[in-house]
């Protein structure tokens, strides 16, 4: 019997186990008790303090007196804890942070030195806190505490609640019941005096008593007997430390060195979880069943959570006998596993796998065809029946075996070196022939027609292969150019359509064009998550695919031409399957087997019906200036404009390993559209503009959306310079500015009018000035005309003088030729007087000064050294007379005039480059 139980224990399909190491949760290794609040948060009594986990985040509240917390119980809105020489409760403040209140200060007497609280329970609106020396009864209504003492020190090992009664065992004295605040002896039979009980549980007509070292007893009022349960001999030598009864009356027992054991209601061993099978540690200190029926295990080194209600079960081959599972099948009430170690099987009502003799080494394929199990093997092809394998084909490397359409007596198999045909005869199935003309490894192939197939080779690509009607020769084959080759690629026919998958996506084959086209919708599953292009078409009308995070199945939607996508959160790290060799088999209408590197997983893909709620558990404000601070969860908030960076943390109290929680959020007042689903449980909003906002978040566990939407309202105040008061002031200021502007405009208008009048006046003055200028110009012109006339008169006079002198000189010359007589001499003398008469010059000078005022004055000022004769020459030069014209006026020869000109130039020191006439004309 023991041997059978050991085999059963070694070959178990276990629920998922999650282990949390101290480095992950940030506290000490030992966890002594576990509890759960109404909001789903899990609490742990840890060596370092109160540890809490909400499914997304861990947090630790240090022990108030820096001692080990031994017990914890979440009751209502309080979390009670017991420590060394202290006990009390924790309650969330307005910011959602647990704050501690000690109750030991309410005691009328001091606690016994070294006393610790080992268990806390709620009982009839009171809280009972049990130490080894007594029980403290706390009444939350009036904050009163009473104490139930025992005579023997350190005598109480456990406190039990059974059938509505409170009992405890005192070593050496038996079982006591608490009535009216007193401990009263209840049962003094030997079993209660000498054996240490860790659990008492009510059954129909008896109690079950679980002891530390003596097994489990069946207790009635008249007798105590060892419970005759199937697993009794298996656990009889183990030291037990904790036990609880689950809601289905099964027992979970924690041991000191053998991990965790689960017994069904009748005592059958359901499973044992040890360190070799996924438990973090073999010493169990605490056990707790939460609201979702998960089993939490406080360990000597860490924490574990066992998802008893998970649709996933894990067969873990801890001895490594099976190896990696590549294929599986159900046939004749037996489960077959094809692995890299061979072909194994077990009856469905058994747990122990056996090797099919002769099938050692790699198994590639298992197919049930015409109720016969075919095995594709590295060494060839086998038919398997009742644990016996018979080889029917010896060509190495049978990848896969398929029926040939319209040929029930022929099978086509793909091998390392091409294609082979199996034929059914009177002697059964046997190898008929290799199909010649195609020697490429044919791991995947699908029929287009009875004689045409598509063959995928991940290192070469997809071939179209046409065979003759006898299946002995390949007529033709060619590489399909519409898709690329790809590592871990595959072919699969689903709903009469062939699909090809590689890292670039999933492609659909078109029979008419003989090409593949990418299916964008279903290809999206590979976005940044590709691990394998393996596609599997199963008997339940699903096509399976695999990504880094999910196992995906496609199904036909009767209302849509496209395939519907369904995701099951089983990450590659938990599948741990050989990439490109993933395998799934339908083993019942609801269950599927997924091969892994250490055995297999069994899972159900159907919808989760559990109800979930989402909670906002922390709000933090990170101001531009200042330090971040936590914000109240229970009331709306007003923040200054500088406090406009806000973050939200939220969670769903969901602890299933294979259920992924994702969130959607939005900030009403900023944007009304929901975000994309994300697994992040934190969202931060930076530089939020002033205004009123409502943050909303909802969750989805798998495809199950939370019942509620968690909300939080807050307001970002305007800066003082944009506040309503400031706006009023700005309005007043604007009015004043407007009035001032109006006044300014009036003044400006008046100024413009004045300027216009001034311009008009100035224009009139300018016109008057212009008229006056014209008059002056007219007078000047008259003067100029007068001067011109006088100049003409002067010129005429000068010319007359010149002509007169010429005439007189001519007469004189003629007379001088005559015989001189006194009369003639008198005439010549008169002529000489008229030629050089000073009166003529005086007249000329007067006329010249009148015509050219101040010329003599200027010349005398500039050249005071000039003589009267020099001045005469200057005047003639100013009149622009030539030397020839000047000579008669001076009554000298032309040569003498040139000499006078030379002397004058020298006297006034005139540069030779300047004409003498020009000099006096321009003076």
From TrEMBL:
Matches recorded under Gene3D superfamilies: Immunoglobulins, Winged helix-like DNA-binding domain superfamily/Winged helix DNA-binding domain, YVTN repeat-like/Quinoprotein amine dehydrogenase
Coiled-coil region list: 766-793
Superkingdom classification of source: Bacteria
Pfam families the UniProt entry points to: Reg_prop, Y_Y_Y
Keyword annotations of the record: Coiled coil, Membrane, Transmembrane, Transmembrane helix
Gene Ontology molecular functions: DNA binding
Database matches in InterPro entries: Ig-like_fold, Quinoprotein_ADH-like_sf, Reg_prop, Sig_transdc_resp-reg_C-effctor, Tscrpt_reg_LuxR_C, WD40/YVTN_repeat-like_dom_sf, WH-like_DNA-bd_sf, Y_Y_Y
Biological-process GO terms, alphabetical: regulation of DNA-templated transcription
Transmembrane helix in keyword set: yes
Domain HTH luxR-type: 863-920
Transmembrane segments: 720-741
Stated name of the protein: HTH luxR-type domain-containing protein
Organism for this UniProt entry: Dokdonia donghaensis DSW-1
């Amino acid at each position: 019997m023991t041997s059978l139980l050991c085999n059963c224990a070694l070959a178990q399909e276990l629920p998922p186990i999650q282990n949390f190491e101290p480095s992950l949760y940030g506290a000490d290794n030992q966890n002594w008790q576990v509890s759960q609040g109404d909001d789903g948060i899990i609490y742990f009594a840890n060596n370092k303090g109160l540890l809490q986990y909400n499914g997304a985040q861990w947090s630790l509240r240090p022990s108030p007196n820096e001692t080990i917390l031994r017990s914890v119980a979440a009751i209502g809105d309080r979390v009670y804890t017991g420590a060394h020489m202290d006990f009390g409760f924790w309650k969330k403040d307005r910011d959602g942070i647990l704050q501690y209140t000690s109750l030991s200060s309410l005691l009328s007497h001091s606690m016994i030195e070294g006393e610790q609280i080992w268990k806390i329970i709620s009982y009839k609106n009171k809280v009972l806190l049990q130490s080894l020396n007594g029980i403290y009864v706390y009444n939350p209504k009036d904050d009163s505490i009473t104490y139930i003492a025992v005579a023997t020190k350190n005598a109480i090992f456990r406190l039990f609640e059974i059938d509505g009664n409170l009992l405890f065992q005192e070593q050496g004295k038996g079982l006591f019941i608490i009535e009216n605040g007193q401990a009263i002896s209840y049962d003094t039979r030997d079993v209660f005096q000498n054996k240490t009980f860790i659990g008492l549980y009510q059954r129909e007509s008896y109690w079950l008593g679980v002891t530390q070292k003596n097994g489990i007893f069946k207790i009635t009022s008249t007798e105590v007997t060892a419970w005759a349960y199937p697993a009794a001999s298996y656990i009889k030598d183990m030291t037990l430390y904790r036990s609880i009864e689950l809601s289905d009356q099964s027992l979970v027992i924690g041991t000191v060195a053998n991990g965790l054991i689960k017994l069904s209601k009748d005592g059958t061993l359901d499973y044992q979880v040890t360190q070799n099978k996924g438990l973090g540690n073999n010493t169990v200190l605490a056990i707790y069943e939460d609201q979702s029926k998960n089993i939490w295990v406080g360990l000597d080194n860490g924490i574990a959570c066992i998802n008893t209600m998970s649709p996933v079960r894990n067969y873990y081959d801890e001895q490594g006998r099976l190896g990696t599972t590549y294929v599986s099948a159900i046939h004749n009430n037996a489960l077959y596993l094809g692995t890299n170690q061979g072909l194994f099987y077990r009856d469905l009502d058994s747990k122990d796998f056996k090797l099919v003799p002769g099938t050692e080494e790699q198994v590639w394929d298992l197919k049930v065809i015409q109720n016969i199990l075919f095995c594709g093997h590295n060494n060839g092809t086998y038919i398997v029946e009742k644990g016996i394998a018979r080889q029917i084909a010896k060509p190495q490397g049978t990848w896969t075996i398929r029926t040939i359409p319209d040929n029930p007596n022929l099978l086509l198999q793909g091998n390392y070196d091409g294609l082979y045909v199996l034929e059914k005869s009177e002697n059964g199935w046997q190898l008929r022939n290799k199909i010649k003309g195609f020697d490429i490894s044919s791991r995947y192939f699908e029929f287009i027609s009875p004689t045409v197939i598509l063959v995928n080779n991940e290192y070469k690509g997809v071939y179209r292969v046409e065979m003759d009607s006898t299946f002995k020769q390949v007529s033709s084959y060619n590489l399909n150019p519409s898709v690329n080759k790809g590592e871990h690629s595959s072919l699969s026919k689903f709903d009469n359509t062939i699909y090809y998958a590689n890292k670039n996506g999933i492609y659909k084959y078109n029979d008419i064009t003989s090409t593949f086209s990418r299916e964008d919708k279903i290809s999206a599953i590979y976005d940044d998550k590709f691990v394998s292009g393996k596609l599997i078409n199963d008997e339940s009308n699903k096509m399976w695919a695999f990504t880094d995070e999910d196992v995906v199945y496609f199904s036909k939607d009767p209302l849509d031409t496209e395939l519907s996508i369904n995701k099951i959160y089983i990450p590659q790290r938990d599948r741990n399957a050989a990439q490109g060799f993933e395998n799934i088999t339908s083993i019942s209408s609801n269950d599927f087997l997924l091969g892994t590197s250490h055995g297999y997983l069994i899972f159900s893909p159907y919808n989760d019906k559990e109800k979930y709620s989402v909670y906002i558990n922390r709000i933090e404000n990170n101001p531009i200036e200042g330090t971040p601070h936590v914000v109240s969860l229970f009331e709306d908030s007003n923040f200054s404009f500088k406090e406009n960076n806000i973050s939200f943390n939220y969670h769903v109290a969901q602890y299933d390993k294979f259920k992924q929680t994702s969130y959607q959020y939005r900030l009403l007042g900023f944007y009304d559209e929901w975000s994309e689903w994300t697994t992040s449980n934190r969202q931060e909003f930076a530089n939020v503009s002033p205004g009123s906002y409502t943050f909303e978040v909802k969750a989805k566990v798998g495809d199950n959306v939370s019942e509620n939407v968690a909300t939080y309202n807050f307001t970002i105040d305007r800066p003082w310079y944009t506040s309503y008061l400031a706006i009023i002031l700005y309005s007043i200021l604007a009015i004043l500015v407007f009035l001032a502007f109006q006044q300014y405009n009036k003044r400006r208008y008046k100024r413009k009018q004045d300027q216009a009048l001034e311009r008009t006046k100035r224009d009139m003055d300018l016109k008057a000035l212009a008229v006056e200028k014209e008059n002056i110009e007219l007078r000047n012109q008259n003067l100029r005309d007068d001067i011109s006339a006088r100049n003409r008169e002067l010129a005429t006079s000068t010319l007359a003088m010149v002509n007169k002198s010429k005439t007189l000189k001519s007469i004189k010359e003629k007379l001088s030729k005559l015989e001189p007589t006194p009369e003639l001499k008198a005439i010549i003398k008169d002529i000489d007087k008229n030629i050089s008469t000073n009166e003529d010059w005086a007249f000329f000078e007067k006329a010249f000064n009148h015509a050219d005022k101040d010329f003599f004055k200027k010349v005398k000022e500039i050249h005071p050294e000039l003589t009267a004769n020099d001045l005469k020459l200057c005047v003639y030069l100013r009149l622009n007379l030539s030397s020839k014209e000047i000579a008669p006026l001076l009554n000298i020869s032309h040569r003498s005039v040139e000499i006078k000109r030379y002397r004058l130039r020298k006297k006034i020191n005139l540069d030779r480059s300047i004409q003498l006439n020009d000099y006096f004309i321009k003076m």
